[in-house]
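Hey L., structure's done. Input below.
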Amino acid sequence: MKTSDYFVWRAFSMVMLSYCVAVLSPLVAVAGALVSQPPASMPSVCPPSVPITSSAPTIASQGWQVYVSSELYLNSAAPIGGPPERHADLAEYTFKPGKQQWSYTYDLGREFPEGKWLECGYGAHNEITLSRRLPDIIRTCTFSYRKGVKAGQYDIQIACR
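Output:
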């Protein structure tokens, strides 16, 4: 790679990072308001996709034309040990392999000082996550995965008890 190519790529990367911040900031604010407290009876279901809509005015003003080709599809789901900003992924689970379907079961019977949360990841690298607090009475959750219709998409069934 030539030095000039490197600088073009680095500039492009910085612009895309700015775009992602512009797009995700409003989503984070809305998600924060939605996940503060769980409802008394909450279904454990991740939305199948997250629409990405933004005119990204800060990018457009820099001469970039914004085009969003599709929404981001559900890629992962798992319980976490606290609010999403803590990045408290749980490492202990039981994996049940299968050709068409596979599952992960998490034992949530222990104490979680900041609560038990459900985290849903969207995009191939979980570019967006949605999280919500689970009721404290939940003791176990099983996440059953199957490949979805779209590339990188998974149909995930969640059963929490």
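Confidence is low (pLDDT under 50) at residues 3-42. Strands lie at 49-50, 72-80, 94-96, 102-107, 116-122, 128-134, 140-147, 154-160.

-- N.
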